[in-house]
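Colleagues,

Please find the record for the two-part complex below.
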Amino acid sequence: MDTMSPAPLLICEHCDTVYRRIPLARGQVACCARCQFVLERHHRLGADGLLALTATAMVVFIQANIWPIVTLGLNGQQSSATLWGTIIAMWQQHAQVVSVLAAATLFFFPLMKMLLFGWVFWFARRGERGPGFRGVMIVLHYLRPWTMSEVFMLGVLVAIVKARAYFEVTADPGVFAYAALTVLITVFAGVDFRQLWDVTAERKP
Amino acid sequence: MNRLPRAAELGLIRCHVCALVCRDNQVAGAACPRCGARLHRRKSASYSRTAALLIAAFLLYIPANLLPIMRTASIGEMDDNTIISGVVELWVKGAPDLAVIVFTASIMVPMLKFLVLGLLLVCGKCGSNWAQHQRARLYRLVEFVGYWSMLDVFVVALLTALVRFGVFSSVEPLPGVVFFGLTVVLTMLASMSFDPRLIWDCGCDDE
Protein backbone atom coordinates (compact mmCIF):
# COMPACT_ATOMS: atom_id res chain seq x y z
CA MET A 1 0.00 0.00 0.00
CA ASP A 2 3.01 2.27 -0.43
CA THR A 3 2.06 5.23 -2.51
CA MET A 4 4.54 7.68 -1.04
CA SER A 5 8.07 6.98 0.00
CA PRO A 6 8.33 7.56 3.76
CA ALA A 7 10.21 10.56 5.08
CA PRO A 8 13.98 9.88 5.17
CA LEU A 9 14.38 11.11 8.73
CA LEU A 10 12.94 10.03 12.05
CA ILE A 11 13.05 11.85 15.39
CA CYS A 12 12.77 10.02 18.73
CA GLU A 13 9.65 11.15 20.57
CA HIS A 14 11.28 10.87 23.97
CA CYS A 15 14.73 12.42 23.49
CA ASP A 16 14.73 14.32 20.17
CA THR A 17 17.57 12.30 18.61
CA VAL A 18 17.53 12.33 14.80
CA TYR A 19 17.91 9.13 12.77
CA ARG A 20 18.02 8.19 9.14
CA ARG A 21 15.11 5.88 8.51
CA ILE A 22 15.90 2.35 7.39
CA PRO A 23 13.38 -0.15 6.03
CA LEU A 24 12.44 -2.74 8.66
CA ALA A 25 12.06 -6.42 7.97
CA ARG A 26 9.23 -8.52 9.37
CA GLY A 27 9.22 -8.51 13.16
CA GLN A 28 11.93 -5.86 13.48
CA VAL A 29 11.66 -2.95 15.87
CA ALA A 30 13.81 0.18 15.65
CA CYS A 31 14.85 1.50 19.08
CA CYS A 32 16.48 4.80 19.96
CA ALA A 33 20.18 4.30 20.72
CA ARG A 34 20.10 7.06 23.32
CA CYS A 35 16.94 6.40 25.33
CA GLN A 36 15.78 2.98 24.03
CA PHE A 37 12.30 4.27 23.17
CA VAL A 38 10.64 2.46 20.27
CA LEU A 39 11.11 4.54 17.12
CA GLU A 40 9.26 2.38 14.66
CA ARG A 41 7.89 -1.15 14.30
CA HIS A 42 7.41 -3.28 11.28
CA HIS A 43 3.70 -3.86 10.75
CA ARG A 44 2.73 -7.32 9.77
CA LEU A 45 -0.87 -6.28 9.20
CA GLY A 46 -1.80 -4.07 6.29
CA ALA A 47 -4.87 -1.85 6.13
CA ASP A 48 -7.02 -4.86 5.19
CA GLY A 49 -5.96 -6.79 8.27
CA LEU A 50 -6.43 -3.79 10.53
CA LEU A 51 -9.88 -3.12 9.10
CA ALA A 52 -10.83 -6.73 9.77
CA LEU A 53 -9.54 -6.45 13.34
CA THR A 54 -11.49 -3.24 13.86
CA ALA A 55 -14.67 -4.92 12.62
CA THR A 56 -14.05 -7.85 14.99
CA ALA A 57 -13.46 -5.48 17.89
CA MET A 58 -16.71 -3.72 17.03
CA VAL A 59 -18.73 -6.97 17.15
CA VAL A 60 -17.12 -8.00 20.44
CA PHE A 61 -17.62 -4.52 21.88
CA ILE A 62 -21.37 -4.61 21.11
CA GLN A 63 -21.64 -7.99 22.81
CA ALA A 64 -19.64 -6.80 25.81
CA ASN A 65 -22.11 -3.94 26.15
CA ILE A 66 -25.47 -5.60 25.70
CA TRP A 67 -24.88 -8.84 27.57
CA PRO A 68 -24.82 -8.89 31.35
CA ILE A 69 -21.33 -9.27 32.81
CA VAL A 70 -21.92 -11.06 36.10
CA THR A 71 -24.96 -12.37 38.01
CA LEU A 72 -25.12 -12.60 41.79
CA GLY A 73 -27.51 -14.83 43.66
CA LEU A 74 -28.65 -14.46 47.27
CA ASN A 75 -31.43 -16.57 48.84
CA GLY A 76 -32.91 -17.29 45.44
CA GLN A 77 -32.84 -13.65 44.36
CA GLN A 78 -30.79 -12.77 41.31
CA SER A 79 -29.07 -9.56 40.36
CA SER A 80 -27.01 -8.94 37.25
CA ALA A 81 -25.28 -5.94 35.75
CA THR A 82 -24.25 -4.66 32.33
CA LEU A 83 -21.76 -1.88 31.64
CA TRP A 84 -24.53 0.68 31.24
CA GLY A 85 -26.26 -0.64 34.36
CA THR A 86 -23.01 0.11 36.19
CA ILE A 87 -22.74 3.61 34.76
CA ILE A 88 -26.36 4.42 35.63
CA ALA A 89 -26.05 2.95 39.15
CA MET A 90 -23.07 5.23 39.90
CA TRP A 91 -25.02 8.25 38.64
CA GLN A 92 -28.01 7.43 40.86
CA GLN A 93 -25.80 6.85 43.90
CA HIS A 94 -24.41 10.41 43.76
CA ALA A 95 -21.06 9.50 42.23
CA GLN A 96 -21.70 11.35 38.98
CA VAL A 97 -17.98 12.06 38.46
CA VAL A 98 -17.20 8.34 38.45
CA SER A 99 -20.22 7.67 36.26
CA VAL A 100 -19.02 10.17 33.64
CA LEU A 101 -15.45 8.84 33.81
CA ALA A 102 -16.66 5.28 33.30
CA ALA A 103 -19.02 6.23 30.46
CA ALA A 104 -16.21 8.09 28.68
CA THR A 105 -13.33 5.64 29.15
CA LEU A 106 -15.36 2.42 28.80
CA PHE A 107 -18.00 3.36 26.25
CA PHE A 108 -17.75 6.61 24.31
CA PHE A 109 -13.99 6.79 23.76
CA PRO A 110 -13.55 3.13 22.75
CA LEU A 111 -16.60 3.41 20.47
CA MET A 112 -15.25 6.57 18.83
CA LYS A 113 -11.83 5.01 18.46
CA MET A 114 -13.22 1.97 16.67
CA LEU A 115 -15.46 3.98 14.35
CA LEU A 116 -12.64 6.38 13.45
CA PHE A 117 -10.15 3.54 12.95
CA GLY A 118 -12.68 1.84 10.67
CA TRP A 119 -13.04 5.07 8.69
CA VAL A 120 -9.31 5.66 8.10
CA PHE A 121 -8.45 1.99 7.45
CA TRP A 122 -11.32 1.70 4.94
CA PHE A 123 -9.76 4.39 2.77
CA ALA A 124 -6.17 3.35 3.52
CA ARG A 125 -6.82 0.05 1.75
CA ARG A 126 -6.53 1.96 -1.52
CA GLY A 127 -3.78 4.24 -0.21
CA GLU A 128 -6.27 7.09 0.04
CA ARG A 129 -7.27 9.58 2.68
CA GLY A 130 -10.99 9.79 3.27
CA PRO A 131 -12.91 13.00 3.98
CA GLY A 132 -11.89 14.53 7.29
CA PHE A 133 -8.72 12.38 7.49
CA ARG A 134 -6.69 15.13 9.17
CA GLY A 135 -9.28 15.80 11.89
CA VAL A 136 -9.85 12.08 12.51
CA MET A 137 -6.11 11.45 12.94
CA ILE A 138 -5.82 14.34 15.40
CA VAL A 139 -8.78 13.06 17.44
CA LEU A 140 -7.28 9.55 17.45
CA HIS A 141 -3.98 10.98 18.68
CA TYR A 142 -5.62 12.63 21.68
CA LEU A 143 -7.94 9.70 22.44
CA ARG A 144 -5.12 7.20 22.65
CA PRO A 145 -4.48 7.11 26.43
CA TRP A 146 -8.13 7.44 27.48
CA THR A 147 -9.66 4.02 26.86
CA MET A 148 -9.69 1.62 29.78
CA SER A 149 -11.62 -1.52 28.81
CA GLU A 150 -8.72 -3.75 29.86
CA VAL A 151 -8.66 -2.19 33.33
CA PHE A 152 -12.40 -2.82 33.60
CA MET A 153 -11.80 -6.46 32.69
CA LEU A 154 -9.43 -6.83 35.65
CA GLY A 155 -11.95 -4.93 37.79
CA VAL A 156 -14.61 -7.51 36.91
CA LEU A 157 -12.31 -10.31 38.11
CA VAL A 158 -11.60 -8.52 41.39
CA ALA A 159 -15.33 -7.85 41.90
CA ILE A 160 -16.12 -11.54 41.28
CA VAL A 161 -13.61 -12.64 43.89
CA LYS A 162 -14.86 -10.07 46.41
CA ALA A 163 -18.50 -11.03 45.87
CA ARG A 164 -17.82 -14.76 46.02
CA ALA A 165 -17.48 -14.62 49.78
CA TYR A 166 -21.13 -13.58 50.19
CA PHE A 167 -23.05 -14.53 47.04
CA GLU A 168 -23.35 -17.21 44.40
CA VAL A 169 -21.52 -15.73 41.45
CA THR A 170 -22.19 -16.69 37.82
CA ALA A 171 -20.04 -15.30 35.03
CA ASP A 172 -22.24 -14.16 32.13
CA PRO A 173 -21.36 -13.94 28.42
CA GLY A 174 -20.40 -10.27 28.81
CA VAL A 175 -17.28 -11.16 30.75
CA PHE A 176 -16.09 -13.45 27.94
CA ALA A 177 -16.74 -10.71 25.42
CA TYR A 178 -14.61 -8.43 27.61
CA ALA A 179 -11.84 -11.02 27.70
CA ALA A 180 -11.85 -11.19 23.88
CA LEU A 181 -11.88 -7.40 23.69
CA THR A 182 -8.83 -7.25 25.98
CA VAL A 183 -6.93 -9.54 23.62
CA LEU A 184 -7.86 -7.36 20.63
CA ILE A 185 -6.82 -4.21 22.50
CA THR A 186 -3.42 -5.78 23.16
CA VAL A 187 -3.00 -6.44 19.44
CA PHE A 188 -3.98 -2.85 18.64
CA ALA A 189 -1.58 -1.47 21.26
CA GLY A 190 1.35 -2.43 19.00
CA VAL A 191 -0.08 -0.58 16.00
CA ASP A 192 1.33 2.85 15.31
CA PHE A 193 -1.51 4.33 13.31
CA ARG A 194 0.59 7.45 12.62
CA GLN A 195 2.21 5.46 9.81
CA LEU A 196 -1.03 6.06 7.93
CA TRP A 197 0.24 9.58 7.32
CA ASP A 198 3.14 8.10 5.38
CA VAL A 199 1.33 5.42 3.43
CA THR A 200 -1.69 7.40 2.28
CA ALA A 201 -2.05 10.38 -0.02
CA GLU A 202 -4.85 12.88 -0.63
CA ARG A 203 -7.35 11.65 -3.16
CA LYS A 204 -6.87 12.97 -6.66
CA PRO A 205 -9.80 15.11 -7.74
CA MET B 1 29.47 5.26 19.67
CA ASN B 2 29.07 8.12 17.25
CA ARG B 3 27.67 11.29 18.61
CA LEU B 4 23.92 11.20 18.10
CA PRO B 5 22.57 14.48 16.68
CA ARG B 6 19.52 16.04 18.30
CA ALA B 7 16.73 17.76 16.42
CA ALA B 8 17.47 21.25 17.74
CA GLU B 9 21.10 21.08 16.55
CA LEU B 10 19.98 20.24 13.02
CA GLY B 11 17.21 22.86 13.00
CA LEU B 12 14.43 20.28 12.95
CA ILE B 13 11.19 19.82 14.88
CA ARG B 14 9.12 16.68 15.22
CA CYS B 15 5.37 17.28 14.95
CA HIS B 16 3.83 15.91 18.16
CA VAL B 17 0.62 14.80 16.44
CA CYS B 18 1.71 13.19 13.16
CA ALA B 19 5.49 12.72 13.80
CA LEU B 20 6.49 14.55 10.62
CA VAL B 21 10.05 15.91 10.65
CA CYS B 22 9.72 19.64 9.95
CA ARG B 23 12.27 22.41 9.44
CA ASP B 24 12.45 24.77 12.39
CA ASN B 25 11.76 28.22 10.97
CA GLN B 26 12.18 29.89 14.37
CA VAL B 27 8.71 31.36 13.96
CA ALA B 28 6.40 31.24 16.95
CA GLY B 29 3.13 29.50 16.14
CA ALA B 30 4.30 27.75 12.97
CA ALA B 31 2.03 24.87 11.98
CA CYS B 32 2.87 21.38 10.75
CA PRO B 33 2.41 21.34 6.96
CA ARG B 34 0.89 17.87 7.09
CA CYS B 35 -1.60 17.85 9.98
CA GLY B 36 -1.86 21.53 10.89
CA ALA B 37 -0.89 21.07 14.56
CA ARG B 38 1.09 23.91 16.08
CA LEU B 39 4.78 23.01 16.20
CA HIS B 40 6.79 23.42 19.37
CA ARG B 41 10.26 22.28 20.31
CA ARG B 42 9.19 21.24 23.82
CA LYS B 43 5.78 20.83 25.42
CA SER B 44 4.78 24.28 26.60
CA ALA B 45 5.34 25.13 30.28
CA SER B 46 6.07 21.48 30.95
CA TYR B 47 7.59 21.91 34.42
CA SER B 48 4.95 24.22 35.84
CA ARG B 49 2.02 22.32 34.36
CA THR B 50 3.31 18.96 35.55
CA ALA B 51 4.07 20.35 39.01
CA ALA B 52 0.64 21.98 39.31
CA LEU B 53 -1.22 18.84 38.23
CA LEU B 54 0.92 16.65 40.45
CA ILE B 55 0.30 18.80 43.52
CA ALA B 56 -3.44 18.86 42.80
CA ALA B 57 -3.41 15.08 42.39
CA PHE B 58 -1.56 14.66 45.67
CA LEU B 59 -4.03 16.87 47.54
CA LEU B 60 -6.93 14.74 46.25
CA TYR B 61 -5.02 11.55 47.02
CA ILE B 62 -5.17 12.31 50.76
CA PRO B 63 -9.00 12.21 51.08
CA ALA B 64 -9.04 9.36 48.56
CA ASN B 65 -7.16 7.24 51.09
CA LEU B 66 -8.63 8.56 54.32
CA LEU B 67 -12.30 8.60 53.30
CA PRO B 68 -14.16 5.33 52.77
CA ILE B 69 -14.72 4.40 49.13
CA MET B 70 -17.76 2.16 49.60
CA ARG B 71 -20.35 1.07 52.16
CA THR B 72 -21.65 -2.46 52.36
CA ALA B 73 -24.90 -2.92 54.23
CA SER B 74 -26.65 -6.14 55.16
CA ILE B 75 -29.60 -6.45 57.55
CA GLY B 76 -28.77 -3.55 59.79
CA GLU B 77 -25.03 -4.03 59.65
CA MET B 78 -23.02 -1.29 57.99
CA ASP B 79 -19.41 -1.50 56.99
CA ASP B 80 -17.37 1.32 55.42
CA ASN B 81 -14.37 0.29 53.35
CA THR B 82 -11.33 2.35 52.55
CA ILE B 83 -8.88 1.37 49.82
CA ILE B 84 -6.52 -0.22 52.32
CA SER B 85 -9.26 -2.13 54.15
CA GLY B 86 -10.40 -3.52 50.81
CA VAL B 87 -6.91 -4.87 50.18
CA VAL B 88 -6.74 -6.36 53.68
CA GLU B 89 -10.14 -7.99 53.18
CA LEU B 90 -9.01 -9.63 49.93
CA TRP B 91 -5.86 -10.86 51.64
CA VAL B 92 -7.76 -12.34 54.61
CA LYS B 93 -10.58 -13.82 52.51
CA GLY B 94 -8.07 -16.06 50.74
CA ALA B 95 -7.23 -14.14 47.57
CA PRO B 96 -3.75 -12.84 48.38
CA ASP B 97 -2.76 -12.76 44.70
CA LEU B 98 -5.58 -10.36 43.89
CA ALA B 99 -4.80 -8.39 47.04
CA VAL B 100 -1.31 -7.83 45.68
CA ILE B 101 -2.71 -6.69 42.30
CA VAL B 102 -5.15 -4.25 43.92
CA PHE B 103 -2.46 -2.99 46.31
CA THR B 104 -0.14 -2.41 43.35
CA ALA B 105 -2.76 -0.64 41.25
CA SER B 106 -4.28 1.52 43.98
CA ILE B 107 -1.38 2.32 46.29
CA MET B 108 1.98 1.50 44.70
CA VAL B 109 1.23 2.99 41.27
CA PRO B 110 -0.03 6.40 42.48
CA MET B 111 2.86 6.63 44.98
CA LEU B 112 5.31 5.65 42.26
CA LYS B 113 3.89 8.39 40.04
CA PHE B 114 4.29 11.05 42.72
CA LEU B 115 7.86 9.97 43.46
CA VAL B 116 8.99 9.52 39.86
CA LEU B 117 7.43 12.70 38.46
CA GLY B 118 8.66 14.62 41.51
CA LEU B 119 12.18 13.28 40.93
CA LEU B 120 12.05 14.11 37.23
CA LEU B 121 10.90 17.66 38.01
CA VAL B 122 13.63 18.24 40.61
CA CYS B 123 16.41 16.75 38.44
CA GLY B 124 15.22 18.73 35.43
CA LYS B 125 15.08 21.99 37.35
CA CYS B 126 18.59 21.43 38.72
CA GLY B 127 19.89 20.79 35.20
CA SER B 128 21.39 17.52 36.36
CA ASN B 129 22.45 14.80 33.91
CA TRP B 130 22.48 12.17 36.62
CA ALA B 131 21.11 8.71 35.69
CA GLN B 132 19.47 9.87 32.47
CA HIS B 133 18.86 6.39 31.13
CA GLN B 134 17.22 5.27 34.34
CA ARG B 135 15.09 8.41 34.51
CA ALA B 136 13.95 7.88 30.92
CA ARG B 137 13.00 4.34 31.80
CA LEU B 138 11.12 5.42 34.93
CA TYR B 139 9.13 7.93 32.88
CA ARG B 140 8.11 5.23 30.42
CA LEU B 141 7.09 2.98 33.31
CA VAL B 142 4.87 5.70 34.78
CA GLU B 143 3.30 6.37 31.38
CA PHE B 144 2.63 2.68 30.89
CA VAL B 145 1.12 1.75 34.25
CA GLY B 146 -0.68 5.04 34.94
CA TYR B 147 -4.25 4.22 34.02
CA TRP B 148 -4.35 0.85 35.78
CA SER B 149 -5.05 2.71 39.01
CA MET B 150 -8.66 3.06 37.84
CA LEU B 151 -9.07 -0.58 38.88
CA ASP B 152 -10.53 0.13 42.32
CA VAL B 153 -12.93 2.73 40.92
CA PHE B 154 -14.35 0.20 38.47
CA VAL B 155 -14.60 -2.47 41.18
CA VAL B 156 -16.69 -0.16 43.37
CA ALA B 157 -18.87 0.82 40.39
CA LEU B 158 -19.51 -2.79 39.45
CA LEU B 159 -20.27 -3.90 43.02
CA THR B 160 -22.69 -0.97 43.39
CA ALA B 161 -24.57 -2.11 40.29
CA LEU B 162 -24.50 -5.79 41.28
CA VAL B 163 -25.23 -5.92 44.99
CA ARG B 164 -28.83 -4.74 45.05
CA PHE B 165 -30.72 -7.02 47.36
CA GLY B 166 -32.53 -4.27 49.27
CA VAL B 167 -32.32 -4.72 53.03
CA PHE B 168 -30.52 -8.03 52.71
CA SER B 169 -27.45 -6.66 51.08
CA SER B 170 -26.46 -3.53 49.22
CA VAL B 171 -23.38 -1.56 48.30
CA GLU B 172 -23.12 2.17 47.80
CA PRO B 173 -20.18 4.32 46.70
CA LEU B 174 -18.79 6.88 49.15
CA PRO B 175 -16.89 10.13 48.40
CA GLY B 176 -13.45 8.48 48.62
CA VAL B 177 -13.97 6.80 45.28
CA VAL B 178 -14.69 10.13 43.56
CA PHE B 179 -11.49 11.64 44.97
CA PHE B 180 -9.58 8.57 43.89
CA GLY B 181 -10.94 8.69 40.33
CA LEU B 182 -9.96 12.35 40.07
CA THR B 183 -6.47 11.58 41.44
CA VAL B 184 -5.93 9.04 38.69
CA VAL B 185 -7.07 11.45 35.96
CA LEU B 186 -4.88 14.24 37.32
CA THR B 187 -1.78 12.04 37.58
CA MET B 188 -2.36 10.89 33.99
CA LEU B 189 -2.58 14.51 32.87
CA ALA B 190 0.56 15.31 34.88
CA SER B 191 2.62 12.57 33.24
CA MET B 192 1.32 13.62 29.81
CA SER B 193 2.33 17.23 30.30
CA PHE B 194 5.86 16.26 31.31
CA ASP B 195 8.22 16.38 28.36
CA PRO B 196 10.72 13.48 28.53
CA ARG B 197 13.06 15.33 26.14
CA LEU B 198 13.85 17.66 29.04
CA ILE B 199 15.72 14.77 30.69
CA TRP B 200 18.29 14.96 27.88
CA ASP B 201 18.44 18.73 27.54
CA CYS B 202 21.13 19.27 30.17
CA GLY B 203 23.82 17.55 28.12
CA CYS B 204 23.77 13.88 27.29
CA ASP B 205 26.08 11.61 29.30
CA ASP B 206 26.67 9.34 26.33
CA GLU B 207 28.74 11.98 24.58
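Chain B has two domains: 1-41, 45-200.

Comments are welcome before we finalize the supplementary table.
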